[in-house]
Amino acid sequence: MNKPYILIVDDEKDFRDMLKIILKSKLDCRLGEAKDGIEALEYIKHKPCDCMILDIKMPKKSGIYVIEEVKKLKPDIDILVVSAWLSDYVLEESIKKGATDYITKPIDDNILVMKLSAILETRKNKKR
């Protein structure tokens, strides 16, 4: 089976780099990154993606907008929302638009890996 592909979408390069280090050490996956919603949408049009780690508050296009557009283009991509300011409204909107799950910043490495592992396991079971 191919390694799952995870796209990290966040406007903070240091945060993207930190996530790459965590994920490379704890999950058997391929990684990509995008610095904003526009770049993320272009990315998924041309490259494979199983799961997206998506910041909500970004320049150019919000994470909510990105969720809507991703679900139109590739509805099978799972989206893990990551945000420092996750209000009840943002959480509800994210899930309503199609996000799979969420985690708040600052992230706990173990919770991040646990949530991603669960998402990837569910994907694997659906393909059986």
CA distance, first residue to last residue: 11 Å
CATH superfamily, by name, is Response regulator
CATH topology group:
Rossmann fold
Mean pLDDT: 93
Q: What's the order of the H and E elements?
A: EHEHEHEHEH
Percent range of helical residues:
40-55%
Structurally, the number of domains stands at: 1
CATH class: Alpha Beta
Largest sheet: spatial strand order: 2-1-3-4-5
Low-confidence stretches: none
**Radius of gyration from the CA trace?**
13 Å
- Put simply, the count of helices is 5
The 3D shape can be described as: globular
Tally of strands: 5
For the sheet with most strands, the description reads: 5 strands, parallel
Briefly say what this structure is:
The chain has one domain (5-119): Rossmann fold (3-Layer(aba) Sandwich).
Q: Helices and strands in order, then pairings?
A:
Elements: E1 5-9, H1 13-26, E2 30-34, H2 37-46, E3 51-55, H3 63-73, E4 78-83, H4 88-97, E5 101-104, H5 109-127
Parallel strand pairs: 1-2, 1-3, 3-4, 4-5
Helix pairs in contact: 2-3, 3-4
